[in-house]
């Protein structure tokens, strides 16, 4: 427990964090990786370069400071971050390293304004926050290992099949090398791959959504190759998977994780909206709904063009076999494909209200501008916050929605 004076000091720093939070977290990562380069084996280098990880951490630190007197308010955020930590293999011994370098970054950025009293208060607060994470993650590690087919850490899987879906998207079917059972998962969750491409100094870890319903006896991920463009370098892991990993090769996985999951305890309609490769967790949800419920389903896929339409034939077959309760719609950005889709251009509120029951539970995933547009459309249609669910591919960010919506995050590259 924190004393009242410490709580008072931490809350007094909230306005400072609003102004300097990202500078502090950026300095923190630079300092930590300089002092502990071995941690580059865990963190996503691309998210560091693009500034996504410092922003996400700044938001988490700000939330913790603002709610330091009632940390239970941010338990959903803690749980989502802890899911990623468990998937990456973050352990209790990592927390003192983070705390030491975070306090050093606060001192560096704020200078004389970071008095001894403020640093001491933040040291105490960080200890309490770290204990919360360690406790939550310990439970996750135990549950993951003890579940049927579960394991701790990373396990070797064989690439059983490699199927090209489009020119830039490939599905990988993964079986355990030891031939034993594999852990089940909630539709919408992801697995984490650990690879060390030739010529790379560090191992690289990436989260990839599982793109099929649980219970198949294998894991399937559907990966877009991220090519270089503008100032953006090619994706290290996605390029490696596409160009170098072949059928029969071994890759390492941690057990499924993530809190962007389908609520299977409802009877209301479900609307699934995917942009590009963002369809992956939604296809898992779609297959699960068709197998285990009688709920009305609307499935909407937005793609640049017909050539970029992922899993087109697979979803069309599902629709043909379940026409009484599954309605599928396609939106192509390219006007040249207007005769091959249900709408050309972009999804908007007017069109969405015509094809999807507004009492639906809405799940959506895709590029951030796409998700921002969907989120704004749903709010303009007065869809309740409780019915809006979305996931970021990467550190959790903001769609500019009112507080209360439920973003999750994975890290696909």
From TrEMBL:
Keyword Oxidoreductase applies: yes
Ranges for domain Globin: 1-138
Cofactor binding remark: Binds 1 heme b (iron(II)-protoporphyrin IX) group per subunit.
UniProt entry tagged with the keyword NADP: yes
Enzyme nomenclature, EC number: 1.14.12.17
Residues annotated as binding heme b: 85
Cofactor: heme b; FAD
Binding annotation for NADP(+): 276-281
Annotated ranges, domain FAD-binding FR-type: 152-263
Active site: 95, 137
Sequence segments annotated as region (Reductase): 149-413
Superkingdom in the source lineage: Bacteria
Positions annotated to bind FAD: 190, 392-395
Keywords of the record: Detoxification, FAD, Flavoprotein, Heme, Iron, Metal-binding, NAD, NADP, Oxidoreductase, Oxygen transport, Transport
Pfam families cross-referenced by the UniProt entry: FAD_binding_6, Globin, NAD_binding_1
Site annotation Influences the redox potential of the prosthetic heme and FAD groups: residues: 84, 391
The reaction(s) this protein catalyses: 2 nitric oxide + NADPH + 2 O2 = 2 nitrate + NADP(+) + H(+); 2 nitric oxide + NADH + 2 O2 = 2 nitrate + NAD(+) + H(+)
Top enzyme category: oxidoreductase
Chain's role: Is involved in NO detoxification in an aerobic process, termed nitric oxide dioxygenase (NOD) reaction that utilizes O(2) and NAD(P)H to convert NO to nitrate, which protects the bacterium from various noxious nitrogen compounds. Therefore, plays a central role in the inducible response to nitrosative stress.
Family recorded in the similarity comment: In the C-terminal section; belongs to the flavoprotein pyridine nucleotide cytochrome reductase family. Belongs to the globin family. Two-domain flavohemoproteins subfamily.
Domain notes: Consists of two distinct domains; an N-terminal heme-containing oxygen-binding domain and a C-terminal reductase domain with binding sites for FAD and NAD(P)H.
Protein name in the entry: Flavohemoprotein
Gene that specifies this protein: hmp
């Amino acid at each position: 427990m924190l004393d009242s004076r410490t709580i008072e000091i931490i809350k007094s720093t909230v306005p400072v964090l609003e102004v300097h939070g990202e500078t502090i977290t950026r300095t923190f990562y630079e300092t930590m990786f300089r002092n502990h380069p071995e941690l580059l084996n865990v963190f996503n280098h691309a998210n560091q370069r693009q500034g996504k990880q410092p922003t996400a951490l700044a938001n988490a630190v700000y939330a913790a400071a603002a709610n330091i007197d009632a940390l239970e308010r941010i338990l959903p955020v803690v749980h989502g971050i802890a899911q990623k930590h468990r998937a990456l293999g973050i352990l209790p011994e990592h927390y003192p390293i983070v705390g030491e370098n975070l306090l050093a970054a606060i001192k560096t950025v704020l200078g004389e304004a970071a008095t001894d009293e403020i640093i001491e208060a933040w040291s105490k607060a960080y200890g309490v926050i770290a204990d919360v994470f360690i406790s939550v993650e310990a439970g996750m590690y135990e549950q993951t290992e003890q579940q049927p087919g579960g394991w701790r850490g990373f396990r070797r899987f064989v690439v059983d099949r490699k199927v090209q879906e489009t020119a830039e998207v490939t599905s990988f079917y993964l079986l355990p090398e030891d031939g034993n059972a594999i852990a089940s998962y909630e539709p919408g969750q992801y697995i984490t791959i650990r690879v060390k491409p030739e010529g790379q100094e560090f191992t690289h870890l990436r989260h990839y959504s599982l793109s099929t319903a649980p219970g198949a006896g294998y894991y399937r991920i559907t990966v877009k190759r991220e090519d270089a463009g503008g100032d953006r370098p090619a994706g290290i892991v996605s390029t490696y998977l596409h160009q170098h990993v072949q059928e029969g090769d071994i890759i390492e996985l941690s057990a499924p994780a993530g809190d962007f999951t389908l609520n299977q305890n409802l009877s209301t309609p479900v609307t699934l909206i995917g942009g590009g490769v963002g369809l992956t967790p939604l296809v898992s949800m779609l297959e699960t709904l068709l197998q285990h419920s009688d709920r009305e389903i609307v499935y909407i896929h937005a793609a640049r063009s017909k050539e970029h339409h992922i899993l087109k034939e697979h979803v069309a077959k599902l629709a043909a076999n379940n026409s009484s309760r599954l309605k599928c719609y396609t939106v192509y950005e390219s006007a040249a494909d207007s005769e091959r889709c249900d709408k050309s251009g972009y999804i908007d509120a007017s069109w969405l209200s015509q094809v999807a029951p507004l009492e639906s539970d809405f799940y959506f995933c895709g590029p951030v501008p796409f998700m921002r547009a969907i989120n704004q459309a749903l709010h303009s249609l007065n869809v309740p916050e409780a019915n809006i669910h979305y996931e970021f591919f990467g550190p959790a960010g903001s769609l500019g929605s009112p507080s209360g919506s439920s973003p999750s995050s994975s890290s696909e590259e």
